[in-house]
Design goal:
- The protein is globular, with a radius of gyration of 21 Å.
- It has two domains: 200 residues, Clc chloride channel (Orthogonal Bundle), CATH 1.10.3080.10; 196 residues, Clc chloride channel.
- 68% of the residues lie in helices and 0% in strands.
- It contains 18 helices and no strands.
- The termini are far apart.
- By secondary structure, the chain is mainly alpha-helical.
């Protein structure tokens, strides 16, 4: 019988208290991040609508400044955030890695909001994963609880749950993307963190759906034709995006000198591309892309250039080195691809095609078919589409693999493994931001 005052029981209680406390904090921080991100995007939209041509200067200068600040003060905060968690999770002492420090988390929070303020085609969900993993790590350290990969993964999964209001997706994301190896106690820890952070989000923000509620169902006949076509198109397009980003990340020595040796100037050039695309396209390619994607799922239309413009803007943002994720922009590009393909299937509602396109392209980018299916199903309340979405995701994963064999986040995590080592000060940034 265990003594009530035994060290084992005390550590168990501390671990549970740390998990609950961390999950609550993650839910609150994710909600504040979402609210401020929406406000930043609206502020940029208000300025850009009245003074669009000024973005030709403001966006490039903003990109250049953000990359300079990131490289100078918080190199571990660049890019998405998911690769950092993948790189840090297996460390024997993840709490000592700068990838999961509170300094990096604060920088990620502020710099991502700043990126949205200058029109970057970026999302907040990937950054939320890194911020949440850092929070969970810090709380466990404060409670004097030994850390492991399970704690880091639970924090990242709770971030997904709170960011999207999708608890099931948080669990699947933990096992499909973040966890390279299964740990026996990982299941309970992840589920507890995900449920608690999800309840915090639900209690504060209410039961909301990012893309509304889709009640359409896909008949077997049209589905047998539409699903494979959309899956292949979306999977190939998403795989192409991942391949280009990975090439720019890893082929440093083969890149032209302006890119290799002048990352701040290169970021300014990427910002100029984003600004030109935004002005030429009427602003549809700026920001996260949630609004146009939601409109497509609800049956509205977008300009024909929306999908390619958003693809290029997200690509330019991703390779520039500014902090920001690809979750939301990828969902937006996928919905846009569905909008382009919809006229080929007159017997299927455009909203259904947009949803399938969103699934296919998102899978092509992140190569996590189960997570992608669950996220999209939960965000649109489209349970009647589950079989079609899963079939689309599996075919898209195979098509994407033909274009890009390496998973995007796992490929990018290789660039952070050197920085994941224990360090008392931030590591020097690489010549090209990933």
């Amino acid at each position: 019988m265990i003594n009530p005052l035994s060290p084992q029981l005390a550590q168990t209680l501390r671990r549970r208290a740390a998990t609950v406390t961390g999950a609550v904090l993650i839910g609150l921080v994710a909600l504040s991040f979402a609210s401020l991100a929406d406000a930043a995007q609206k502020a940029f939209g208000a300025i850009a609508s009245g003074y669009s041509w000024t973005m030709l200067a403001a966006t490039p200068l903003g990109f250049a400044l953000l990359v300079y600040l990131t490289r100078r003060f918080a190199p571990e905060a660049r890019g998405s955030g998911v690769p950092q968690v993948i790189a840090a999770a297996p460390l024997p002492e993840p709490e000592r890695s700068p990838l999961l420090s509170l300094k990096t988390a604060v920088a990620k929070y502020v710099l991502t909001l700043a990126a949205l303020l200058v029109g970057a085609s970026a999302g907040r969900e990937g950054p939320t994963v890194q911020i949440s993993a850092a929070l969970m790590t810090a709380v466990h350290r404060a409670f004097r609880v030994p850390l492991s990969a399970a704690v880091v993964i639970a924090g990242g999964a709770a971030g997904v749950s709170a960011a999207f209001n999708t608890p099931l997706a948080g669990v699947t994301f933990a096992f499909e993307e973040l966890a390279s190896a299964y740990e026996q106690r990982l299941t309970l820890l992840v589920m507890a963190a995900v449920v608690i952070s999800g309840l915090v989000s639900l209690g504060v923000a209410g039961d909301y759906l990012y893309f509304g509620s889709l009640q359409d169902a896909l008949a077997i006949g049209p589905g047998l034709i539409a699903v494979p076509v959309i899956a292949v198109v979306g999977g190939v397009a998403g795989g192409l995006f991942a391949r280009i980003v990975l090439f720019m990340s890893h082929a440093r020595l083969r890149l032209p000198v302006p890119i290799r040796d002048h990352p701040v100037l290169f970021a300014a050039a990427c910002g100029l591309v984003v600004a030109i695309l935004g002005i030429a396209g009427g602003g549809v390619s700026w920001g996260t892309g949630y609004a146009p994607a939601k409109a497509l799922i609800e049956g509205a239309s977008q300009p024909l250039w929306f999908a390619p413009a958003k693809f290029l803007a997200t690509l330019a943002t991703s390779v520039s080195g500014v902090p920001g994720g690809v979750f939301a922009p990828s969902l937006s590009v996928g919905a846009g691809l569905g909008g382009l393909i919809a006229p080929l299937f007159p017997g299927v509602s455009p909203g259904t095609i947009a949803l399938l396109g969103m699934t296919a392209y998102f899978v092509g980018v992140v190569r996590a078919p189960l997570t992608s299916t669950v996220i999209i199903m939960e965000m649109t309340n489209s349970r009647s589409m589950l079989v079609a979405l899963l079939a689309c995701a599996l075919i898209a994963e195979g098509a994407a693999r033909l274009v890009c064999r390496e998973k995007l986040y796992h490929g990018l995590s290789r660039g952070f493994r050197g920085e994941a080592a224990v360090s008392s000060s931030p590591a020097s940034p690489p010549a090209h931001p990933r």
